[in-house]
Design goal:
By secondary structure, this protein is α/β, with parallel strands linked by helices. The protein has 2 domains: 122 residues, 3-Layer(aba) Sandwich (Rossmann fold), CATH 3.40.50; 202 residues, P-loop containing nucleotide triphosphate hydrolases (Rossmann fold). It is 40% helix and 14% strand. The protein contains 13 helices and 9 strands. The strands form 3 sheets. Strands 6-7-5-8-9 form a 5-stranded parallel sheet, with helices on both faces. The N terminus is likely disordered.
């Protein structure tokens, strides 16, 4: 008999795929009638989910570790029932208390396909080894993915230096809770630079600066307000927001200028005694402002929840909220850059614990 510790099992299955895999386990080295499909659908923190091929490889390695004589066949599942509804040589399906209804649907489809009914084997949920604040106290792929939150996922871009500020780049999509995380960090002692507001301030478009002259040369004299020669942001907006090419022309001018203002603000805050500085920046990655930071911290939220929040906060239609979300980087695109990841999907107290934990670990890193 082989007994695996919990951590051994978790190393094989700690990250899941939105697609499941279908697993065939045989008592011999050839197929038998005792084949079993296993799986479930997961959506929270989908960006940390490993590719399905990696998952299938992990399953094969896990089964080979505990029972090398078993034959394993894996197939991606792209619909709720998968091969279990169409393969004739199956006779059992494994489910949990929460997924029993799925087995009912599988057997319904098998009956419609003229196949035998599968025996349904229900296994209990395994309790999590710590209490989750949202009341979900079972072991699941979601709970395991949550363990990746607020910890250092990979080494900092730049190590801490003596007599230099430690700069965190905080970013995330619309409705992700990025700014609320920034406010929580500020209460813990960090200085915050809101780069989004800095980009809209008068100084960025100040009359007769190089940026001012480049914008007028690029977009024409008609964007100049005749009374004070300032740039009419409304007219400029009408020109650039109708074309991605025109918008890129503007950001190519403005983003480097905002970065320079940000660096000046960093130096000022450091001189007045702030040692940890957080850049709250929606376009941190797109604008390549990461050159100014030691670490990248990313706030994440499932798209469906982001849309709900934006509709509620900004009084937009769901379609308009979805359109705005689609113009930004996706969670999957941001995640590879993350040194630290947050998710504000749950209660505010859960977010607070994530922030406090990340802050504590950060201070330990800086000291060492």
């Amino acid at each position: 008999m082989i007994v695996l510790s919990f951590s051994d099992w978790r190393r094989c299955f700690s990250r899941k795929e939105t697609n499941n895999e279908y697993i065939k386990l045989d008592a011999d080295t050839k197929h038998s009638d005792n084949d079993t499909p296993v799986g479930g659908f997961h959506f929270i923190l989908a960006e940390v989910i490993e590719p399905v091929n990696d998952r299938m490889s992990n399953v094969r390695s896990f089964v080979d570790l505990i029972r090398p004589s078993l034959y394993v066949h894996c197939e991606p599942i792209e619909d709720p029932c998968g091969p279990s509804a169409t393969m004739a040589d199956l006779n059992c399906i494994i489910v949990t208390d929460e997924t029993q209804q799925g087995a009912v649907q599988v057997n319904k489809e098998r009956q419609e396909n003229g196949l035998s009914q599968l025996a349904v084997h229900v296994i209990p949920m395994v309790p999590a080894d710590n209490d989750n604040q949202d009341g979900d106290n079972k072991l699941s792929s979601t709970s395991l993915r949550r363990e990746m939150l607020s910890i250092l996922l990979k080494p900092p871009l730049k190590s801490a230096e003596a007599n230099r500020p430690y700069v965190i780049g905080l970013t995330g999509g619309i409705g992700s809770g990025k700014s609320s995380i920034g406010r929580r960090l500020e209460k813990l002692g960090a200085a915050i630079i809101n780069c989004d507001k800095l980009g809209k301030c008068h100084e960025t478009y100040k009359v007769d600066t190089d940026v001012y002259k480049k914008i007028i040369t690029t977009f024409g004299e008609d964007i100049v307000n005749p009374t004070d020669r300032s740039i009419d942001r409304k007219i400029l907006g009408n020109k650039v927001f109708q074309s991605s090419d025109e918008l890129k022309k503007l950001t190519d001018i403005v983003w480097p200028a905002i970065l320079n203002l940000t660096k000046e603000r960093i130096e000022y805050l450091f001189k007045i005694g702030k040692h940890v500085i957080v850049l709250d920046a929606a376009v941190l990655l797109e604008a390549q402002w990461t050159v100014a930071v030691n670490e990248i911290w990313i706030a994440s939220i499932p798209p469906k929840e982001a849309i709900r929040r934006v509709v509620e906060r900004d009084h937009l239609s769901p379609d308009e909220a979805k359109r705005r979300l689609s113009t930004q980087m996706s969670n999957q695109q941001r995640f590879p850059y993350a040194n630290v990841l947050f998710c504000t999907y749950w209660a505010e107290s859960v977010t607070q614990k994530q922030v406090e934990h990340a802050w504590h670990l950060l201070l330990e890193r800086i000291k060492s």
